[in-house]
Amino acid sequence: MEQRLSAILAADMVGYSRLMEADELGVLTRQKKYRRELIDPEITRSRGSIVKTTGDGMLATFESVQDAVQCAVKIQQAMSLNETELDDDQRIRFRVGINLGDVIFDEGDIFGDGVNVAARLEGLAEPGGVCVSDIVHQAIQDKVDTTFRDMGGQRVKNISRPIRVWHWSPQATPARKAPDISLQQRVKFCKSVDGVNLAWASTGEGTPILKAPNWLNHIEYEWTSPVWGDFLSEFSKRCQLVRFDQRGNGLSDWDVDDISEDRMIEDMVAVADAAGLEQFGLFGISQGSAFSVRFAAKYPERVKFLVLLGGFVRGRMMRGDPDAAQFYEAARAMVSAGWGSPNPVYRHFFTSCYMPDATPEEGASFDEMQRISVSPETALRIIEMNAYVDVRAEAQSLQVPTLVLHVQGDMAAPISEGRETARHIPTAEFVELPGANHCMIRGHPGFDEFFQEIEPFLKEYAG
């Protein structure tokens, strides 16, 4: 066996089984043609060596990281041009991952952590795209005329540590600059009661406010998202905002045994303790409203006030509403059928409900955040947990100042659920916001009005 530092390229064909079922002979013919005329010659020109191939992919090594990245980008650009005349579901498209690490060469095969990481990076890439590890990006950023988008740290299967990932695709839009206040963020980790590692961070100054976990989180990727970046920036200007990735999401542990209401409350306690928060406000969006209510009922001595946006105190299956139950079943079907698919249509079901007025860029960003933030299995478990939440009894016991805000045309959580929340909390004030988006996005109705409403509330109760 021989061990040496190498750039590892892992590639596979997207939807290989589906393509073969539809046109086995045609796909094999085109694949052999691309190997013969494009892929193998480009790897050779780039001083790379194909170690092994499978029916739908390959592993290759390169002496130079720069050569590996340039080779991958050239192949992907050429593939995109060659397949443009075919329908989208008939195109041969590859995903590529590139890593740099020590590799063990043994009897014509390669092994090692560096190879495993390259394979996981390939799984994160969009169809036709290239994902590289941070060490690769650092090595090539001043030497390759190709722009990579920062995807932040990522949790990948069977790798214990988060891996910072950078992504390139032929259709990529220019990278969005994160707000300046994001530079304050330093991701830290703490353990919940059952040993699950939670990633958390703090930005801003002043009264501490803990953000409860909502549908999906990624505390790094959110800063460059047109959906979340400006909202988090404006919020952080008014307080010390403490956020964390809920279990199974983002940079927190993905492989967890228990996703339940009890665990969510324990996680909130763990993060508050790690951040040194004694008394603080709670900010709950969507499902986070229910968790904020339950936390405040259980630990009234620690909670100064609540700000609840687009939330509910009863899940869809607890409302006695056939339409809500039907939405729940449709959501479960979408996740079960294709959450992990490179085709965003399944995730776009949620995007179109959460942000019907989103621009194409905003919608694509939300689709992408869902894809990289959580596995299909965990997304399904979160949906099921939220559907059966019921904190109406706890809400009636609250005595802390509470501001409930809800967008008039919210499709993900109807405004009737916002009124229901305010009706059950004796101290609640209810405010209707204009618009139709469940998320507050700069430039859309509701964004400016939200901050206009919370400023006097924070001034009165945050001191």
What can you tell me about this protein's structure?
With about 475 residues, the chain is α/β, with parallel strands linked by helices. About 45% of the residues are buried. It has helices at about 15-45, 65-80, 115-125, 135-140, 230-235, 260-275, 285-300, 320-340, 345-355, 360-375, 375-385, 390-395, 415-425, 445-460; strands spanning about 1-15, 50-55, 55-60, 95-105, 110, 130-135, 150-155, 165-170, 190, 195-205, 210, 240-245, 280-285, 305-310, 400-405, 430-435. Strands 1, 2, 3, 4, 5, 6, 7 and 8 form an 8-stranded mixed β-sheet that branches. It has an 8-stranded mixed β-sheet with strand order 9-10-12-11-13-14-15-16, with helices on both faces.
Content of β-strand: 15-25%
Give the low-pLDDT segments: none
CATH C-level of the largest domain: Alpha Beta
- Measured between the Cα atoms of the first and last residue, the distance is 66 Å
The name of the CATH superfamily of the largest domain reads Alpha/Beta hydrolase fold, catalytic domain
The average pLDDT is 91
The geometry reads as elongated
What layout of secondary structure does this protein have?
Elements: E1 2-13, H1 16-45, E2 48-53, E3 57-62, H2 65-82, E4 94-106, E5 109-111, H3 113-124, E6 130-133, H4 134-140, E7 149-154, E8 163-168, E9 188-191, E10 197-203, E11 208-211, H5 229-236, E12 240-244, H6 261-274, E13 280-285, H7 287-298, E14 303-309, H8 322-338, H9 345-354, H10 360-373, H11 376-387, H12 392-396, E15 402-407, H13 415-424, E16 428-433, H14 447-461
Parallel strand pairs: 4-6, 11-12, 11-13, 13-14, 14-15, 15-16
Antiparallel strand pairs: 1-3, 1-4, 2-3, 4-5, 6-8, 7-8, 9-10, 10-12
Helix pairs in contact: 1-2, 6-7, 8-9, 8-11, 9-10
